Amino acid sequence: MGINGLDIPPAPAPAAPPARRQGVVLALMCACVVLVVGAVAAVNLTVPMLAASGLHPSASALVWIVDTYVVVFACLVIPGGAAGDRFGRKGVLLAGLVLFALGALLSALAPGLPLLLAGRAVTGVGAAAVLPNTLAVLLHAVPQERKGAAVATWAAMTGIGGVAGNVGGGAVLSAGSWRWLFAASVPAALLLAALTARLAPVSARHARRLDPLGTALLVAASVALLAGIVQGPESGWGSPVVIGGFAGAALLFTAWTLVELRVAHPLLDPRLLRVPRLRAACLGMAAVFFGMFALFYVNASFLQYGKGFGVLRTGLGVIPLTGPIIVAARHVGGLARRIGLDATMALAFACTGGGLLGLSTGGAGTPYAVYAGWLVVTGVGVALALPTLSGAIAGALPPEQAGVGAGLQATTREFGSALGVAVIGTVLTSRFTAALPEGVRAHGDPHTVAQALAAAGPGHRAAVVDAFVTAADAGLRVVGGSVLVLGALVTLPGLLRRRPVGPEGTAGRTRGRG
Q1: Given 3-state DSSP classes, what are the helix, strand and coil percentages for the chain, each rounded to the nearest 5?
Q2: pLDDT digits over 284-299, tens only?
């Protein structure tokens, strides 16, 4: 079974490497995952620096700096896996690492916003080529009896990547410039490329067809949707760019659906979403990452502006969120067997959404210990959700479509992340401008903290920070409430269908399985 759901041809594949080399390949592929996932989290730490930089980005431009990488990553991760099947997984992985390095270099050297955004897009293309092919290379490198453990280790790297991105990014940014974060990614990616070229095994190629039209339509539709969301506060919700963005997204998503229904080898077959459990699990996965990455976006600025943390302390400050994701993941399976998948998912969404709402009650004067407590609650929810929803997606598809399920998971995760950043960035901008004192708004109608301080002067810093904290709390309330509503849509149908648990304690769990 190929990683994208293809049947392996009868021709024998090259033998797996020796046991010692297998451990090295596992460590190497995990390091690649940490690099591309950590980049998503780390860039949020740069937002206050970028806002005050000579680039003078608008509030919407700050969102695009974060989201360009994520949306390209989301839309191309399935084509990245398909390209690995067709052209060779090791070769596409190497190309992805080189593209990642080139995009990071372009971002680090960018003299203005257009080149910075172009660099972010190139880096996203590289990440989309890296992520699916690390798993494909890994599955080829280990024998059958070790595949389960290898995949579990690989999957855990998504949580560790968030920690590494925040802590490592904070350490790098302590040097004083946002450019250092992108510059540091260049040697890291090139070193991993060199080690991959030397140590990773070569696997057989497969006759997997690509879907360039479907890919282009999905990227264009996603960008149009985000443009409508992100540009609303600055351009006006009735402006041509916003209306055009939403209308264009509707037309392009419709065109994408029609194309995917007609092609022989679709990028992502929309008919899969007819399966109720699969549709619910995908919505749930998107909702969890919507909440988590909205929090990542606002958390970095809140701790720096509202709490006065330095950038390294800010990176360390998110560990209470990511700790439960790493520590508690191994216990989720046992809990799901005891209370059922639907009840586990309901608990996950209650913790995730409730934790976000709890964070929205913490103003600048709230002790960090209280804030950290709510981060732990949110982290417990995410820790419960990720393996449960992954299992539900995998269980809703037959074994021959396991690769399709993996690609669907990656797409929904990254798309949810992009939407989370866009939505909270939009709420943040709207509420921030409304909360500013009239005397500050009179100085050029600022939309970011840096613009407000530059226009009104340091004497208004307290009022500007208070306005930002008010806006951050409003954004977290919107996101937390959205996660709870989406969680109810995902879990209530299954919970209402459950029968009472019988003498053997199995009836309810059977109904709750994906």
Answers
A1: 80, 0, 20
A2: 999 999 999 899 899 9
